[in-house]
Write a structure and sequence with these properties.
Elements: H1 3-11, H2 28-32, H3 37-41, H4 44-58, E1 62-64, H5 71-75, E2 80-81, E3 89-90, H6 114-127, E4 133-139, H7 141-149, H8 152-159, H9 161-185, E5 189-193, H10 202-222, E6 226-231, H11 239-243, E7 249-252, H12 258-268, E8 271-276, H13 278-283, H14 287-301, E9 307-311, H15 321-332, H16 334-342, E10 366-372, H17 379-395, E11 399-405, H18 409-417, E12 425-428, E13 431-435, H19 441-449
Parallel strand pairs: 1-4, 4-5, 5-6, 6-7, 7-8, 8-9, 10-11
Antiparallel strand pairs: 2-3, 10-12, 12-13
């Protein structure tokens, strides 16, 4: 049985020979061949070379062809801000101020970077696709709507129902076209990545998002494919409604308790994946930290079929390959797995004494700390930071807005000292006010003013 066979059986909740493992390599694969994120995501040659290198080194059972939630937005007229170590972020929103869909460029997968992606799929099917499943990732309709309209789309859910419905239908149609093209190209698993789901509640999910997702998942199932729903951020409040959709699999990041996800998914007859820690383990940790985190995931996931081991999101560009090697070793060697499970839990004792936070009470300005994964490549983080900046401008008083990325010790230190409970979050004068949910402008301004 190949690794691909093992993974596909697991996604169907069938018993498999061993635990499957899917490193969401993303632009990290570019680091393995010495090219930056921008160069990597613009070249089929680099994508193929990077994934072949990752496949040879990490022995995965599946890999995403690309992890870039801006492919569709770029073709539809969004300007992208490129970075060297993250996927690009959306810098402009062509529907800012209107819902005129006729103002958008016509959507075609012959434009933008789509030809490079499909060229890479064709070549990867030949080189690694026999033994390794290929995931085709597409941008979920809620996140794509945010890319096109901006963060105002979240507010529009309360008073622009017709515009919201029209734009969601438009984004869903694009996702369905993309999914069909993926399946025709030979993609094994279509993954709808919709990180902005963590920023809404269950009522809006059921009313606005679930019908769109079900249209996509039903299309994939009718074509004989498998589907996954991948949500970043603290999506705990939405786990039950997510599990009620028609997807085959749900993946989450480290903000979500894996045991709770497993309980919800198994009750709904779905497989699930996650949620190895990105920064404290893969980026900043060592081999022992990796072994302990794998053991945590195994314990929380529990016994029974349907669990896929994976990082909580796409791997940071500069994460340590030797840490990822540890995961591969445990997956493929039962002895190493037993050693990992026998390790004692270690509580993080780092007090970050070298990270000094401001004396908020003595500051002449209101200090707004936005704790993110990295706004350059994380969609919820991008919109949370932008909301904070625009709220600060609207407050009419002196305000300092600062981002703290948990990809470094400064961000981790602020996260711990400010007692941040979820990523991304907004803290005002040292107190967490908005955890993993983008606030309405008036609510944020009131919080900044202290009213």
């Amino acid at each position: 049985m190949t690794g691909k066979d093992i993974l596909l059986k697991t996604l169907r909740c069938e018993a498999a020979d061993r635990l499957p493992w899917v490193p969401f390599t993303g632009v990290h694969a570019g680091s393995l061949i010495g090219v930056n994120a921008e160069a990597y995501l613009k070249s089929a040659d680099h994508i193929v070379a990077g994934l072949e290198a990752a496949n040879a080194r990490y022995q995965p059972d599946g890999v995403p062809v690309v992890f870039d939630l801006q492919l569709e937005a770029e073709v539809l007229g969004c300007t992208l801000a490129w970075a060297k170590e993250t996927p690009p972020s959306v810098a402009t929103h062509p529907l800012d101020g209107s819902y005129d869909l006729n103002s958008l460029p016509s959507f075609s997968m012959k434009n933008g970077r789509f030809p490079a992606v499909f060229d890479a799929i064709k070549r990867l099917k030949s080189s690694i696709g026999g033994d390794t499943a290929l995931f085709g990732l597409l941008t979920g309709p809620l996140t794509l709507a945010l890319h096109l309209r901006g963060e105002e789309f979240l507010l529009d859910m309360f008073d622009e129902e017709d515009g919201v419905a029209t734009l969601m239908d438009f984004c869903t149609d694009i996702a369905i076209d993309f999914a069909r093209a993926y399946l025709e190209a030979g993609i094994d698993v279509v993954a709808v990545v919709d990180p902005m789901i963590s920023q809404i509640g269950p009522d809006h999910f059921e009313a606005v998002v679930a019908p769109s997702l079900n249209r996509i998942f039903d299309t994939v199932r009718d074509a004989g494919g498998l589907s996954s729903l991948f949500v970043c951020g603290n999506a705990t409040r939405n786990l039950e409604v997510m599990s009620a959709t028609t997807c085959d699999n749900i993946c989450v990041d480290e903000n979500v308790d894996l045991k709770k996800l497993g309980d919800v998914c198994r009750a709904a007859g779905k497989s699930f994946g996650g949620n190895l820690r990105l920064t404290t383990v893969f980026l900043l940790g060592d081999a022992d930290a990796t072994r302990r985190d794998v053991a945590r995931c195994l314990r929380e996931a529990g016994d029974g079929p349907g669990f896929m081991l994976a990082p909580g999101c796409d791997l940071p560009y500069a994460c340590k390959p030797e840490n990822i090697d540890v995961v591969s070793g445990i997956v493929h060697d039962d002895y190493l797995r037993q050693i990992a499970l026998a390790l004692p839990d270690v509580i993080d004792t780092d007090t970050f004494d070298d990270i000094v936070i401001p004396d908020y009470a003595a500051s002449a300005k209101v200090i707004v700390d936005v704790v993110t994964l990295d706004s350059a490549g994380c969609a919820p983080c991008t919109y949370m930071l932008k909301a904070a900046q625009e709220g600060a401008r609207a407050a009419g008083i002196p305000v300092s807005v600062r981002e703290h990325k948990i990809t470094g010790r400064d961000g981790l230190g602020y996260m711990k000292k400010l007692k941040v409970t979820a990523i991304p979050s907004i803290c005002i004068n040292g107190e967490e006010k908005f955890a993993s949910i983008i606030p309405e402008r008036a609510e944020l301004v009131a919080a900044i003013r202290g009213t």
